[in-house]
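Q: We require from you a single protein entry containing the residue sequence and its fold in token form, and nothing else.
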Amino acid sequence: MSRLADWAAAPAGTAARWLLQVLPGLVGVVLVAYGAWLAWRPAGWMAAGMLLLVDRAWAQVRADRPGRTER
């Protein structure tokens, strides 16, 4: 069983690190979209779509900077 634990430790750590980086942003998108949805249902979809587009655009801007890579 120790071999299995050794083999799975690195991928599990990578997955946990990725989740800790991505999860707060996703929770924020969901909360903003839900709040907009409570005010007017189509606004929830529009807010979620806009926030996701802004996130992708920001990632592209960061990736296009010389000497920088996206995390």
